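Honest question from a wet-lab person: if I give you the sequences of every part of a complex, can you actually get the arrangement of the whole thing, not just the pieces? Trying it with mine:
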Amino acid sequence: MEMLLLALDLAGTFVFALSGATAGVQNRLDLFGVLVLSFAAGNAGGIARDLLIGATPPAAISNWHYLAVSLLAGTVAFWRPIIIERLRNPVLLFDAAGLGLFAVAGTQKALVFGLNPVMAAPLGMLTGIGGGIARDLLLTEVPTVLRAEVYAIAALAGAAVVVIGSALHLPATAITLSGAVLCFGLRFMAMRWGWHLPIAGDPEQPATPAPKDHKDDNARGL
Amino acid sequence: MEMLLLALDLAGTFVFALSGATAGVQNRLDLFGVLVLSFAAGNAGGIARDLLIGATPPAAISNWHYLAVSLLAGTVAFWRPIIIERLRNPVLLFDAAGLGLFAVAGTQKALVFGLNPVMAAPLGMLTGIGGGIARDLLLTEVPTVLRAEVYAIAALAGAAVVVIGSALHLPATAITLSGAVLCFGLRFMAMRWGWHLPIAGDPEQPATPAPKDHKDDNARGL
Amino acid sequence: MEMLLLALDLAGTFVFALSGATAGVQNRLDLFGVLVLSFAAGNAGGIARDLLIGATPPAAISNWHYLAVSLLAGTVAFWRPIIIERLRNPVLLFDAAGLGLFAVAGTQKALVFGLNPVMAAPLGMLTGIGGGIARDLLLTEVPTVLRAEVYAIAALAGAAVVVIGSALHLPATAITLSGAVLCFGLRFMAMRWGWHLPIAGDPEQPATPAPKDHKDDNARGL
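Yes, you can. This is the full assembly:
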């Protein structure tokens, strides 16, 4: 179980690192810059969570596997961008899976460290979206998660399942799975149907899907 | 007294969160983005201070009241921007009051955690200005506090009063009040008279008020 | 020895603070903004390292000397930019020396705090490059270290010497000196010969020096 969780965590890191590396390649960073973007996109969420809950040094710093996986993703994206391009659809699915995994794992870690349950869910969400925010800020772009689609909300929903299930003393494996699956499902459907949150100043905007705007901003470059 | 301080702290958080939410609305973020901006503008200063002095988890993370107040401010700004517009002048006053309160409260917390007094004042100032810096960076703008007016200096002056008063063992209530009032007063007069700090490369710029430039950059959007 | 290290550390802080202050002046920040940039450029790398390894409060916060040195550099750059201009070449040398010093000192501190040796080297590198990244992000520019030249790599090479030497139980003074000298030498030669890392999408770019592009982006403004 422990090994499985670590493997899933590293898989999520790899996919997020790919998104960072791809954004770095598109912005014509040099090899070092691409690798920094990979590490930041793959690990900034978990690092921010660990700093905030007082779990220092963060797992991504104390355990070298996260760095190795991030560098691997960055190297692939740098030298073989064509592979990423071909894998576009699978990578989007992995990204949604990584989001779900990070959200539930982040929430559980926050609960283990004694955080208030109300705050554990946002911290789980932060674990999922923090990497994308760091990636965008390093490229001086407004984080796409702040203005696009159902991405953070999916992570928050998955995190909420863990918090509620934990408060009800349901079995840990079941609530972890349920939360991750809910997040993945919401994210998948949002991509499939182009769901958006309301934007300020658009009172007439339909709550239903905006059919023409399927562009997936959160998965930019993937 | 404890309750009063918490109430004042939450009031300051609310006002700063309003400034973040309003900036988010103006940048056409979606609802989630506006709420993130609210939380960041209301709490980033205190979170940065707590991380730097080793007070983990930060108060804004361990206590859910800060999140609730921030979300309330964000929701109001998102759904009823007209209210914010009408309250423009009161909100500017609250912003100055929040600045004074955050600066003195931040300084005191740093002193309680055993920080060097010389560094406690900048940390108090950081508590006051950190939220605005986070708000601007998330929107990829150069933080207005770095180039506009007497804002950070007012916070620093209030913080210095606390440090000096504490070194002289003056009564805590008196120095807290004096520091907050000094910061509020300086900020208020700076807004009233358009005071600026010198800008590099402008050796001839008068040290006295620049009468035409009353625009209040720090309170952007309020 | 202790005193010598502190003196060298403060010298590195001073030089990095100069780079921040100069960038602030060029972006027409006010005096306060220039001083913030000075402090950020001089200390953000060390602060990030200390937060990540759990050494709170960070040295730059608990010890007021770092603030004083940063403010001194900022004041000089603000009031006497002509001095910086004249010292351009010496400052570039000091910058390379500061990089080497920060990289080895940061690596050693990470090892002392029990970090995995594989991660101690990147943390040493972060100590050296973090200030420049903070400086650029505050000015909403993509960090130059992500797309320019051999800068971070030189820091990483110096850090690696410390990690390897430490694993082999070589004398601390010797490995510290070797690491710093290696970093300085690599950086100096990269400036001298215009070395670059490969950039994505430029498969034909020669690995040898690009003779016309001697512009030193990392030392922007110095």
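Two things worth pointing out. The mean pLDDT of chain A is 84. DSSP finds nine helices and no strands in chain A.
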